[in-house]
User: Fold NAD-dependent succinate-semialdehyde dehydrogenase from Cyanobacterium stanieri LEGE 03274.
Amino acid sequence: MMIATINPTTGETLQTFMALTATEIEHKLDLADSTFQNYRKSSFESRADKLLKVATILEDDAPEWARLMTLEMGKPFQSAIAEVNKCALVCRYYAEHGADFLKDRVVETDASYSYVTYQPLGVILAVMPWNFPFWQVFRFAAPTLMAGNVALLKHASNVPQCALAIATIFKGAGFAKGVFQSLLIESGQVEQVIRDDRVKAVTLTGSELAGQKVASVAGEVLKKSVLELGGSDPFIVLEDADLEEAATVAVEGRMRNNGQSCIASKRFIVVEAIAPKFEKLLLEKFQALKIGDPMAEDTDIGPLATPAILAELNHQVQKTIDMGARVVMGGKPLQGKGNFYPPTILTNIPEDSPAMTEEFFGPVALLFTVKDVQRAIALANNTSLGLGACVWTQNEKNIERCIRDIEAGSLFINDMVKSDVRLPFGGIKRSGYGRELSVEGIREFVNIKTIWQK
Assistant:
């Protein structure tokens, strides 16, 4: 697999990189391991100070980092700016709260003194995706480094310049070179890194298939793993919802990052009493979206990240249409340069079609009509995935029912699913396991050690 920057707006190959050799990987592993022996003894204050400097570097040069994301994977520039600022936020959050999250916890027992202490594990490998090329990395790195671990990043092969830039940012903030390193390696080289004794744990954000492979290898060598995989998030609209607000947020929830988000709203499940009106509103708002150059300020939707992603999405859409779905709008790739796919709405979704069973990674909304809340919940749960969900209603009984019965790692009421540094983030079922962010995130890669002193 080529490690290259290929502009998804033009298709032009801008820069290529050679994958690290086995010798070069060995050098980086050795540097990480030796660096950890000193870094684990550093104070929380020292780590926090450097994380705050990382945040400042991100904010001061936000346009530079944002432009790099847009160049490599097509994210609209304004969205990329917001992503950089969110990365700074997560660094500040753990700099301010990390020490408190990991302070010793005294427990009264029969011992003279007993407590729980949280100690770093060592070298942690992160296998990260292209769709949020800065955020996914920083939401892993900030808590990991604050806990006293060191990090190795295997980033997606289509965002190598982002990977190298992130390593430069950590070095510029004063972290020793071995604390955070980017490995420009191919997917076939990941297994050897996971198996290396110096690597103590691994986290992956990506596809189900990638998660299965990483978890299998980590399981063989009995190493901790955290997985955040796909999502087919339901967006449930009940009869008493504010339809104008719900439709407005539906567009944002589906189209963020050009539709390429695990927690994007993908299945719009609407009760039949208000379905025609909601479809009309959604169509009007989709038609108002502007597709074009992601660097332009007024662009709503840029290109998909790669030709392969475009081809896969189009295959799913065409197969669903062939099986009987109705096209409300869109449904075919745009002609010309770049990986552009138009905003698309499909309804009358047939059973066993891709739209019923697969995640659609792009600007395609799947619209379902159901009779009532009971059927809405049943359809929402009729998926192997369980990342996020949202429901639009003012009815407290229905809210309580959805909280109790919807199978997902998070449920948002009258808002779209999003990640917040203060709240744990992750999924259930085939959407993965483990949590990122909040106090739960920083405790994923530590030794929770019991101390009993008599």
